[in-house]
Fold this protein.
Amino acid sequence: MTAPMTARFYDGLHPVAHIVTVKATPAELAATMPDGRVVVRWPTAEIEVVSDAEHEPHALLVCARQPGTRLAIEDEALRQSLAELGGNLARATGRRPRIAPALGGVAAALAITVGVMAFAAEKLPNVVAPFVPYVWQRSLGDSVVTAMTSDMRKCTRPEGQQALQALIDRLQDASSYRRRIDVSVVQNPIVNAFAVPGGRLIVFSGLIDKASGPAEVAGVIAHEVGHVVHHHSMKGLLRAYGFDMVLKLVTGGYSSDVATLGGAGGVLLALRHSRDAEREADQTALELMDKVGMRADGLSTFFGKLLEMQNKQAPGDKGKAPGNGSTKPRDAAEEAGILSTHPPTRERLEATKRPATGAPALSAQEWQALRAICR
Amino acid sequence: MPPASHAPPPGYPPPAGATQPYAQPGYAAPGGHAAAPPGYPPYGAPVAYAPPIHVNPPVRLTYDGRVGELYLVYLRSLLLTLVTLGVYRFWGRTRVRRYLWSHFQAFGDRFEYRGRGIELFLGFLAGVGFLMVVGGIVLGALWLFARETVLQEVDAGDAATWLLLLAGYPLLAVGRYAGLRYKLTRTRWRGIRSGLDGSAWKFGGISVGLGLLNAMSAQLVTPILDMALARYRLKNLTFGTVRFGFAGQAGDIYGRFIGFYFLNILAWIVLVVIIVMIVGGLSAVIDRFGGWEAIGDKIAHPTPLVIVIMILVALAVYSLIGLVILPLRCWYQAYLLRYLISRTWFGRIQFVSGVTTGQMWGFMVLNWIILVFTFGIGWPWVLHRTARLVADQLWIYGEVDALAVAQALGQGPAIGEGLLDLFDTGIV
């Protein structure tokens, strides 16, 4: 080294910065005060660089011989010459990357990572869902059933229960699903049925009451069995969880508003999957019913009935023409568009049309027993 | 130079009797400095408050970080956080802090952040462990003594969630104080470590107690709450062996607060009137769409167009709030910040801030807008703006009385920020 170079020396006792001249040899680093006093004589091999060249604009040198003291060096030339001495001092150099290319690289890697994770969050549930241990699925399903039906009366007349279970067993036998599918009927006027994780169906009595015959009930039940066969509820839960996790990681959870916006995106995504799942369950329902030789027009006529119910005039709006003033009949699922859990009902009606042939799903006796399940 | 309106008001220095010990108990004279320098009191002796040395032109903090570099640090940390499913965030946070701290300078010397990611990670684990132990004890007690009563009504999972929410509010204040202590004990300037005395639990107690009182009194004791929290933090703030001093009093800011309080009510009334007028002006439009009923129906079955319109309406309402309500809040907050800073001293150094209402609005409202519209990716930009604001608006009068300050004893807490990480979403 020829030209002496300066650093700031902190003695570790008081907040004073001493401007010192640094001389470094392969054996020793010495720092001299302007008055000629030598304040630092550190063996080069024992010097440590505590600063972090990527993030800090100065090099901080410490030595265990003088605990608490440090040399702060900003002079690039001095840092370079110290780094050339090697050993620990190699880290004294300033490593400031060129921003634009580095940023570009990191941004690209980030985009790829987010893409891969989003893809995994989207696709992995399809692979993983069937392998979630049955007991977990079961307890999850049980908690859903409890939460949903705790304040509803259970309909448990054994004849009706047997008739419904026999229908489900036939459909399940024909499917790839290898466990028994349970069913519980609850008293509720709403026309609906659900499949929950663990292969459990919940049927609202409104469905049985409003159905014109066993074919419609069988169609809806086959559709729910379709959900069970494809593990749709488990896939939906896993996907929601995965998306939430990716979102949390990407936004770092800094702002609840960002989380709300992202959550809304997640809901839209889940709804799209929900609509796809409905289509898949419709198709599987038809396949299963065809396979056991069951009359399969019930699903389609059930959709017709749904549309009819939506277009029935409420007592309040007798002056208005049905269907929002237009001639087109109303279809709530279609109007809700991207916010709907189900595809447009008309589309499903068309897609599930079948001839009225095949064996009846339930005998007349069984059908009567099912109608009476809540009595 | 700070504008005259932000200079310390007449009546400064603070009330007589405010004494500021230069050295704390446990402080021994450093080796080689057996006697205090001429003109200074002996080490260890409490010293009466000395008026700041106003003869010097003020010194400012400088921040020479660049937003591009900060983005690189942040995005690289984000990438590694994603790849490690979140575990890296403690190390990432440490990197961001190292960058920010080391780009601040005062009197020509850079700040230093020497915290480590592993400390934050262990703190996080300790926080989780603490919550599990406390939650386990409470749930166990519920199961033992209230199995027949409470647990018949509520699910154990619900009870745990409620417990977390109830505990979260007080624990957030405790965590904030402990987190501040961690950050300060890892901060060095001229090789001397900073610190925070006092008890995080006591701070949490003040925060919760006065917070409840404030809620029960229609927010009218806000200045007392603000002042109590600031006082506890500032009077416990240390650099080396010396504490900061603070002489703020709630009475001084009540005038401004009462003004803000009633103007705020007025502003809400104005806002409601504006909204009513807008809605009234739009009644013709609403009628064309078939009245409120039809609009309600549209919201129940929204098409994408309706969603866009709803978002636009929500943004319009937010902007109205941002334009009518928040400037007033910023007017009070900027005043409060200027007041708190001007009543704080360290040895013979005094601080003054010139932060204006407009700057406070830029800090509170614009930063929020940046974060929301960039989906969180604007975070480094927000940090950079904040760092620049701090550096631009803090004036330091006087000089460091170097020989009166010695190195702090001990190392501070071994692990950091567990509760803060669990209950707060801040990253720096």
